[in-house]
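Let's study a protein:

___
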Amino acid sequence: MYAVMNIRLEKKEKCLAALSIEVPAEIVANERAKVLKAFVTQARIPGFRPGKAPRAVIEKAHAEDISQEVESRLIQNSFQEALKENEDLKVLNVKNPENVTHQADGSFSFDAELITSPEFKLPDYKGLDIEVPKVEVTDETVNENLDQLRQRFADYEDIEDRAAEKGDLAVIDYTATIDGKPLEEIGGEQAKPLASNEGYWIRIDEEAFFPGFTDGLIGLKPNEEKEISITLPDDFPIEAIRGMDADFAVTVTGLKSEKLPELDDDFANKIEPGKSLDDLKSLIRDDLEMRQKRQLEEIKINGVLAKLNELVDFDVPEDFLTSETQSQADAMVKEGMEAGMSEEQVKERQGGLFEEAEVRAKNSLKTNFLLTEIAETEGLKVENSDVLQRVTMMAKQAKKPVKGYMKELQKSGQLGNIRQNMLFSNAIDFLVEHANVTEAEPVTEEK
């Protein structure tokens, strides 16, 4: 490290700082001597044994390499010294040095732009007020889940003496079109499974398949055909075909009635060997309560993070924001394409999409900076043993040896990300633990 240098640091807006450093000629000469000595020892020069070539010969043969190594050491060491003198500055990244100059007097100077962590005052993050729903597992909810199990184990009998009625199961072949074109041509890849089918079982009720579709099956008998036209709702999952009129050419190949098993101990034993009906009900209730617990934890996490972001605002590094915005936009485009949006529709929404992506990106970055600061303030840490335990679990899931998997993570730089995310989780747990949580009016568990 260099003890005597001229260091100038100027903080700028938007998490930037300008750094200018001048290294005295004496330090430059000493560093060059060290580099040259290393080259003399290691360089291979034809006609000379290793380490025996004259210094002048080596300087001439490796002039460019020597200069680059000297510059690299001067920049790296002087930068470290600059950080020592400005310990309060949290540097996230350093852009390529500029104005690198070897002065006539033998001194060396360069400029660099630093990307720094945002400066902000933490809000009162203990005691954040959040509201969560009070979700109750009722007997009705348990019974609804039992009915679903009964349907899974139902027997089915052919209907041959009458036409289709509500509640029946119809077996159909169908092909769907919009304006005479195949459904997948309009709706994209996601619409392909809905475009045609053979031997498709469908319950005749209002909620099945497409809204209004099964009403068109009422009154049909096996081997009868019919064209059913419906208007897809405005909130249909596949955006590209929302609100459009679709035509279905349908053939009923069979009708079936459902015979549900009796709800008794024999049925429970079939589902969970050795269990009674009361035991099965208890298992279902426990499972629902566990699901509720996970849902409530997610609601609490989202609640404290949203509240935390509301309490403070600050700029985030532009380079980070640009990169994160692109990542968010890519994810949103992927979601849109999977939802059936065409490339043309994606292009039409590009402007609004990037605006939304930037909002998401800033909130994400803000959250990370806030959690980092909270973790530091509260002395939260991630022990090496915790990281090893997490990596061991990940290796097991990936079905790879732990040591080899660890090396992969280190090589790719992901190990640091894992530790950072674990620290974020610790900070989030701290916020939730110290939050003021109130429960809203009870609602029943959604099916």
The first strand starts at residue 6 and ends at 12. The chain has a mean pLDDT of 90. The chain has three domains: 6-116, 155-259, 269-444.
